[in-house]
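Mods, move this if it's the wrong board.
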Amino acid sequence: MRLIGAISSLFVLAMAYALSGAAQPPQDHSHAREGQDIFRFDTFGDEQLWTDTLRMHTVIPTLTPATALAVGLKVDVDALPAEIVAALRAGKVDLTSPASTAVTLQLLRLNAVVGVMGTVSESGVLTKVGITCALCHSTVDDSLMPGIGKRLDGWANTDLDVGKIVALSPSPLLDDETRGQFREWGPGKYDPRHHAFDGTNLIPLNSPSLPVVIPPIYGLKGVLWETYTGDGAISYWNGYVGVGQMGGHGNFSDPRIGLFIRQTPDLVTPKLPALLDYQLTLDVPRPPKGSFDEAAARRGKQVFHKEGRCATCHQPPNFTDVVNTPGRRVPFLHDPAAVGMDPAYADRSATGKYRTTPLRALFQHPPYFHDGSALDLLAVVNHYDRLFRLRLTAAQKADLVEYLKSL
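Not the wrong board. C-alpha cells:
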C-alpha cells in the first residue's frame, strides 16, 4: 500500500471521535437541518476528482436522461418546474433521443439529479460536476415514473452502477484493467477499499476489487459502529468516504490502514457533526402493507429468538451486538469464520473482522451480506441453518423469512 503525504501524529476530528467510541451526542435539530443540506447538496470540493481528474463533465453532456436513469441516477420531482412535471406525465418529453441530452443539462441546472451537482454556463456548457452523499445513500419513490419521484434519504440506491459510471471517464489515470474491474461491480455495489484519492492522485489500496453492497443509512441512532467491519464510528466513515472516496477537499488519517491525506482548507471535517445529526433523524421505513404474512411473522419471531438463535447476535432494539462492550468504546466484532463469511474484504479493513449487521427494513435492500452473496432472505436463513446446524424445518424457515420481512 502506497503512503501519500506526510505522516501526521494527530488525527482529524472524525478519527478521534471514532477511536473514542463516545456515545452519539444529543441531536441538535438546527444542526440536522444544516446536515440535510450537506447530505443532499455539499460536494466538499470533490470537483477536484470528478471534474479536474476524472473529467466527468465532458461525459455527462453526452448522456440522454434515459441512459442516466439506466445506470441508476435518480431525479427529484420536487426540484422540477410544474410544466416539466406535466410534460413528463403526459409523455411529451423524449428521454431517449440524442437531442434529449439538453434535458440532462437542464436537470443539472435545476439541482434535480439526486447526488450530482453540476455547474452549467449561460451558453449551456457543463463546466463542473461533483457528487454528494445522496448519490449512493438516497433514492426516489418513483411517484412520477421509474427513477423520478420524491427523495428517500438514507435508502441505499440499489440501482446505482457507480463502477459503470466511473468507467466512462476519459482520464488517463484509469487503465483498461481498472476500468474492467469497475464495470464488474454491478448495480448497488461499490468497493471502498480499492483506491483512495488524495486531491491529486488515485492511490491504489487493494487489487483485485472486492465490491460490497451499498448499505442503507437510516436507523443509525444507537448503532455507533456503522460499517461492515466496524472500523470506526459513523463520523469516521463519513470522513473516510468524504475525503478518500468522494474526493472531497479535506483531511483524513488512519495509521491502521496506512492512509494519510491532508489538504488545506479542510472542507469535510467541520461538517461531520451536522451531517451526523441529520443521519440520526432518518428513521427506518416500515414494510409496505401486505408485503409479509403477519401470522407467519408472529411464528417467525419465536424462531428468531428460540430455535434459530438469531437474537444471540441480532439483539433488539437495533438487532446488533456491535455495542456490547464496556463503555461501548470499541466495537464487538466477529471473526469471519465464526459467521461463515469470506474473510477477503475484512482483511483489507482496519479490524479484520465483521460486525453484526443491524436488521432494518430488510424488504428494501436485497441482496444480503456484505458481498451480496445471499440473493434473498431465504438464502440468509439457509446459510446460518447450515453453519450452525440448526436443523430448521421448511416451515420454520418460511416463518422466519416472514418475520425478517416485517422488521
